Amino acid sequence: MKIIEQVRAPNPRRVRIFLAEKGVGIPFEQVDLGKLEHKSAEFEALNPFISVPVLVLDDGIAISETMAICRYFEAVQPDPNLMGSGPLEIAQIEMWARRMELELFYRVAQCFRHNHPAMAALETPQVPEWGEANRPRALKTLEIMDGVLAGREFIAGDRFSVADITALVAIDFMKPARIERPAGLTSLDRWYNEVSARASAAA
């Protein structure tokens, strides 16, 4: 079993944090996106959408997509639980994980992919106007998060979950995407400082 990734990419980091929280050790194999190694026939056979990370099981079955990989390990090793226990908590964590994925992580990624010169060879065509259109949407989500976090410790409730992982990685991804975190979001800042201090954040 191994995970094929690119260590600087944000999606593989989400998986590494998830596994670190669970205490799961697994070998990682690097693929160089800058050298377009993910577009090789060998890699495309594992994931036709040519994205990382990819989990390759011992029998050769490949699982791609970040949350699919996390769900696999959540089922293999349920504790500590990161995706919810019981119908209500599962739904609440899923709701907030989707919001962080679509309204923050995705928005930041579009700014990066369509505006950063280093992405010109990977994002064809780059549409700078689309990248910029996502910037205010990401900032609006941060404001919403600040309001939510004024009333609870973590994104989806009273304990750390996969929603916090996605949000943390998205906010860290704002730096290369050249999005400045607004000042004055005190509850968001409190949460960010706490989750950034977790040992898993360095994974």
Description:
- This protein has helices at residues 10-22, 41-46, 66-76, 87-115, 128-149, 162-173, 186-196, and strands spanning 2-5, 28-30, 54-56, 62-64.
- By secondary structure, it is α+β, with helices and mostly antiparallel strands.
- It folds into two domains: 2-76, Glutaredoxin, CATH 3.40.30.10; 87-202, Glutathione S-transferase Yfyf (Class Pi), Chain A, domain 2 (Up-down Bundle), CATH 1.20.1050.10.
- A four-stranded mixed sheet has the order 2-1-3-4, covered by helices on one side.
- Strand 3 (54-56) and strand 4 form a beta hairpin.
Fold blueprint:
Elements: E1 2-5, H1 10-22, E2 28-30, H2 41-46, E3 54-56, E4 62-64, H3 66-76, H4 87-115, H5 128-149, H6 162-173, H7 186-196
Helix pairs in contact: 1-3, 1-6, 4-5, 4-6, 5-7
Tertiary shape: globular
How far do the termini sit from each other? 19 Å
The number of strands is 4
Q: How many H/I helical runs? A: 7
Q: Can you give the mean pLDDT? A: 96
Biggest beta sheet attributes: 4 strands, mixed
**Structural category:** alpha+beta
Which value, in Å, is the CA radius of gyration?
17 Å
Unreliable parts? none
At the fold tier of CATH, the topology name of the largest domain is: Glutathione S-transferase Yfyf (Class Pi), Chain A, domain 2
Spell the H/E element sequence: EHEHEEHHHHH
Tell me which CATH architecture of the largest domain applies here: Up-down Bundle
> Beta-sheet strand percentage?
5-15%
Helix share, percent: 40-55%
Classified by CATH, the class of the largest domain is: Mainly Alpha
**What number of domains?**
2
> Order of strands across the biggest sheet?
2-1-3-4
